[in-house]
Specification:
By secondary structure, the chain is mainly β. It is built from no helices and 11 strands. The strands form 2 sheets. Strands 2, 4, 5, 6, 9, 10 and 11 form a 7-stranded mixed sheet that branches. A 4-stranded antiparallel sheet has the order 1-3-8-7, with no helix packed on it.
Length: about 120
């Protein structure tokens, strides 16, 4: 059973920083792209940042220059360093991975989400 488990969310003041982590566990053969998405109640889930296995990253315009995505392939883990947080960054952040389990086909997985709240 493959699982993505996020950690690191919480409450922070505007201008502050948080670091999210997401670890993929279970019987995994390989992981290609990993990423972070966020969702506010009543709105669609949106891409925040994605990173390929080779380390090529892409960001939403709204977070470019403030957020940094990284990954540790040996630990099947991705991180999202969030700096200069603003109230509009408040959302539930979801980890995403495209991976191949040991005895299953390549598909997309999601974590359960971690809440990030940025106060004024």
């Amino acid at each position: 059973q493959v699982q993505l488990v996020e950690s690191g969310g919480g409450l922070v003041q505007a201008g502050g920083s948080l670091r999210l982590s997401c670890a993929a566990s279970g019987s995994i053969f390989s992981i290609s792209a990993m990423g972070w998405y966020r969702q506010v109640p009543g709105k669609q889930r949106e891409m925040v940042a994605i990173i390929t296995r080779a380390g090529v990253s892409n960001y939403a315009v709204s977070v470019e220059g403030r957020f940094t995505i990284s990954r540790d392939n040996a630990r099947n883990t991705t991180y999202l360093q969030m700096n200069s947080l603003q109230p509009e960054d408040t959302a539930v952040y979801y980890c995403n991975a495209h991976l191949t389990p040991l005895r299953d086909i390549f598909r997309e997985y999601w974590g359960e989400g971690t809440l990030v709240t940025v106060s004024r």
